[in-house]
UniProtKB/TrEMBL annotation:
Pathway(s) served: Amino-acid biosynthesis; L-leucine biosynthesis; L-leucine from 3-methyl-2-oxobutanoate: step 3/4
Binding residues annotated for Mg(2+), in chain numbering: D217, D241, D245
Subunit-level organization: Homodimer.
Domain of life where this protein originates: Bacteria
The protein's name in its UniProt record: 3-isopropylmalate dehydrogenase
Entry EC no(s): 1.1.1.85
Domain Isopropylmalate dehydrogenase-like: start-end pairs: 4-342
Claim: Signal is one of the keywords in the record: no
Gene: leuB
Residues given in the record as substrate binding sites: R94, R104, R132, D217
EC supergroup of this enzyme: oxidoreductase
Free-text comment on the cofactor: Binds 1 Mg(2+) or Mn(2+) ion per subunit.
Length: 349
């Protein structure tokens, strides 16, 4: 059966990292017998310029019919209309596809630890996953308004929304080191009090998983002090947004971190967590590793091709260990150089 991918290159560095990554997929697929198609569509700022909306109907329809979605990056300083911003396209896509769980792994091998801004002894052997609730919380709560001298946002959660994200975290923990950390602000927020109580109820169904609760400020500290102690972290939307960016710097660069957004049975979306980096767009400076690793997640989770995912991950690890990296990781290689070395390595593997 043909595996159908929808590619959303997006804005800034998105098109260049997407193009090179799809070339690498083509090179890999020719060696391992993988039948697939890729169709590209506009989303984000480029879609606003072309169609007047960040999420055209044709793009949404294609995503709904796909087996998986690959996203490059969206956004940029030129799109300033608050009623029509590139980011609204991604938020609306998440809602339409019910992508309620965002999975962000962070891994620091011994060979990669020298790249971290922290001491190698602190970060080496870090292997954690942050599970972020993606479709509720303060980003979507009502009422919401901005007046001249007053503004309001609302952080809202239902018990059912917490239950479903908790199950994702517990099931992931079962497949890993069987430890789950739930992060909230239970000492202040009513929504966090419901969160903690609900997580404890769900925990009764997973007696093999050890559970700890941390306040978000404490967790942000411990991610720096003892990152290797964490296994699976679950948290709500805003906290997850912040903590996952913090965790992404443990390996040394935002450009190394992939992510996946899951629904219940529909297509999953895969994207690097970095932004569109318009300041370096088109200059052959973008770090493509996060995009390549997002492809690896796509192949493992949606295409059920663990063999292909492992090849990509091993190749990325090897290139980093050899110092074949972009400037953000202290290297002297351009984006196209990384792709060239990647394809050469898998050809010789």
């Amino acid at each position: 059966m043909t595996f159908k991918i929808v590619a959303l290159p997006g804005d800034g560095i998105g098109p260049e990292i997407m193009s090179g990554t799809l070339d690498c997929l083509d090179a890999l697929a020719s060696q391992v017998d993988f039948d697939y198609t890729v169709d590209s569509y506009a989303m984000g700022g480029c879609a606003i310029d072309q169609y007047g909306t960040p999420l055209p109907d044709a793009t949404l329809d294609a995503c709904q019919r796909a087996d998986a979605i690959l996203l490059g990056a969206i956004g940029g300083p030129q799109w300033t209309n608050p009623q029509c911003r590139p980011e609204q396209g991604l938020l609306n896509l998440r809602k339409a596809l019910n992508l309620y769980a965002n999975i962000r792994p962070t891994r620091v091998t011994t060979d990669m630890a020298y790249l971290s801004p922290l001491k190698q002894s602190i970060v080496e052997n870090t292997d954690l996953v942050i599970v972020r609730e993606l479709t509720s919380g303060i980003y979507f709560g009502e009422p919401r308004y901005l007046k001249d001298d007053e503004a309001r946002d609302s952080m809202t959660y239902t018990k059912e929304e917490i239950i479903r994200i908790a199950h994702v975290g517990f099931q992931l923990a079962q497949s890993r080191r069987q430890k789950l950390t739930s992060v909230d602000k239970e000492n202040v927020l009513a929504s966090s009090q419901l969160w903690r109580r609900t997580v404890n109820e769900v925990a009764e169904q997973y007696p093999d998983v050890t559970v700890e609760h941390l306040l978000v400020d404490a967790c942000s500290m411990h991610l720096i002090k003892r990152p290797a102690d964490f296994d699976v972290i679950i948290t709500e939307n805003l906290f997850g947004d912040i903590l996952s960016d913090e965790a992404s710097m443990l390996p040394g660069s935002l450009g190394l971190s992939p992510s996946a957004s899951f629904s219940e049975g529909g297509p999953k979306l895969y994207e690097p967590i970095h932004g569109s980096a318009p300041d370096i767009a088109g200059q052959n400076k973008a770090n493509p590793f996060g995009m390549l690793l997002s492809l690896a997640m796509c192949l493992r989770e949606s295409a059920e091709r663990d063999d292909m995912a492992t090849i990509i991950e091993t190749t990325v690890d090897t290139l980093i260990a050899k110092g074949i990296t972009t400037a953000d990781l202290g290297g002297q290689y351009g984006t196209t150089d990384i792709f060239k070395h990647f394809k050469a390595f898998i050809k010789g593997a």
